[in-house]
Model the fold of this input.
Amino acid sequence: MAFETPTAEDLGLYLNLDEIDAVRADFLISTAVKLCQAVVKPLPEGAEPVVLSAAGRAYINPQSVTYETIGPQSVQRPTGSGGLYLTKADKTALKSAAGRGGAFTVDPTPTTADPSPSYPIDDDYGPGMEWEPGWGWS
Done:
């Protein structure tokens, strides 16, 4: 199954809204899809929640107001933020859904590598000689 772009109705259900401005919601969803594609392209199955999360943040709080007092009126807006954006967690979720990220191992040994020693072997060293505990072969 491939990525399916969420609809305005999906966004309304996600935000638990009885009514939603479909034109604005569709715009935010399409913009969120483009923003997500800047991280992972093509978008994988499972990217729908990230798209809805980003579009939902912008729909509910377009100016990213973080502090508000009703009387006497007071509002605080963070500098340089607002609008539609992806959080670090959103980017991580996209990469994870695409099968990227996480721990991995790289073996730099060539497949043609010979396991025998590449150094000269000393014939008068090792088995066949007397082993002295604490001192080695003598």
